[in-house]
Each structure stands twice: as structure tokens, then as C-alpha cells.
């Protein structure tokens, strides 16, 4: 989860469900819902992160309708799950059936075009109160897999600084109340974010350039030489 601070409306006595906690369960969750996977598939689904011990009740299911009563929970957390599901419309219907409020987070099309994880089935975007979606299989992303496999390997090696620095550009995260409208689209341009603003990096956060590094190296050498001569 990239925006935990956006979860703001959970009340002290709320019964909270989290769907697909993976390796990073939210501390406020009371129950977990997990889809059944083989151990190998489960590892891929949680981004190859190690499994964690969930010390609260876990319910497993095979997809489709959630195994809970209507409005059984006050709040449902669903972070980085919607891109994985087989049926987006059914999943959204089930979210609003079992809870009246919740939080959703998922990657957008910019992230998918860079990394295109095979486990991600859907391209998603939140616009005007609706989740727009399109099956990734209907695009030509697979044509670029040789490039994306390299980019995925950089993430696995820990080179995620760009993603974390520009997380607002690559991910959506928001609370919803009462209902969530889904809309199937057929044109990729409808999934392109319209509110992304890449601001210049603050001078204090900017890494030094090669020229600056070389200049600093020679300054340090000069100071060391002066100390040696004076000593």
C-alpha cells in the first residue's frame, strides 16, 4: 500500500475486512479474505514478497461471490487486488454488498506499461467517481515483454526509487462510500490519467550530477593535499 494515510474514516468500533492482504496486512484489519492459490502462484500474486503470519481470522475462497453476509462489515480495505481479478464488475458489486465504506488502491496504465506483471489482468483508472477498466489481454502489451522483463528485474533488485518518488503518478488510492461504479472501456486513451502533475524535484532532494560529484572529489583531494603539506 502506497497511501496508508488516505485511510481516514475507520471508526474505533468498525468491523474491518481486508481482501488480499498479501505480505503487508493493514494493522486495523479484523478479518482477511484470500483467494486460494498454489504456493508458487501465491508468491507471484504477492509480488514475490515473503508470506507473513496473519494473526487474525483468514477466510479462503475460489473467486466470485464473497463468503459473507450483506453488510457484514463496516469497512473493507482492498489494496492492489482489483488489477488481479477475473471479473471487475462482480468484484465491485461484492465490495459494496459486504460493506458500506472502504478503500481501494491499484496501479494505473503508466505503471502497467513499464512493468506489465503477468498476474495483473486489468488496466484501471478512477475518473469522475467511476472505475474505468479494460482487460490487459486486449492490448499489445505482450509485444513489449522483452523490455518489460528487464524493467521488472530492476524492481526485484530493489531499484524502485522512481516508483516511490513519483507514486502519485503510478497509483490510485481513495476511499469510497455507499457505492462504486465500474465502467468497461474499449479505448486506451480513456485510461490515461488526467490529473498527473510531475513537479520539478526540490533542490534538496535532487541527487548530485556527475559533474558535481567530480567537482566534490577534487575539492576533497585539494583539502587533503593542503593538510598533508601543512602537517
- First-last Cα distance: 55 Å
Order of helices and strands: EEHEEHEHEEHHHEEH
Tell how many strands the DSSP assignment holds. 9
| Strands in their spatial order, largest beta sheet | 3-2-1-4-5-8
If classified by CATH, what would the architecture be? 3-Layer(aba) Sandwich
Q: Low-confidence parts lasting 5 or more residues at pLDDT below 50?
A: none
> Main beta sheet, described?
6 strands, mixed
The number of domains is 1
Q: What top-tier CATH class fits best?
A: Alpha Beta
Taking all Cα atoms into account, the compactness measure Rg is: 22 Å
What is the arithmetic mean of pLDDT?
Answer: 87
Form type: globular
The CATH topology annotation reads as Rossmann fold
Structural class by sheet pairing and helices: alpha/beta
Enumerate how many helices there are, as a single number: 7
Question: How would the blueprint of this fold be written?
Answer:
Blueprint: E1 16-19, E2 31-35, H1 39-45, E3 58-61, E4 73-79, H2 88-98, E5 99-107, H3 109-115, E6 122-127, E7 130-135, H4 145-156, H5 161-165, H6 167-170, E8 171-177, E9 181-184, H7 210-230
Parallel strand pairs: 1-2, 1-4, 2-3, 4-5, 7-9
Antiparallel strand pairs: 5-8, 6-7
In words, what does this structure look like?
The structure is a single chain. This protein is α/β, with parallel strands linked by helices. It has a single domain (4-195), classed as Rossmann fold (3-Layer(aba) Sandwich). It is built from seven helices and nine strands; from the N terminus they run ββαββαβαββαααββα. The protein has helices at residues 39-45, 88-98, 109-115, 145-156, 161-165, 167-170, 210-230, and strands at 16-19, 31-35, 58-61, 73-79, 99-107, 122-127, 130-135, 171-177, 181-184. The strands form two sheets. Strands 3-2-1-4-5-8 form a six-stranded mixed β-sheet. The model has no long low-confidence stretch (mean pLDDT 87).
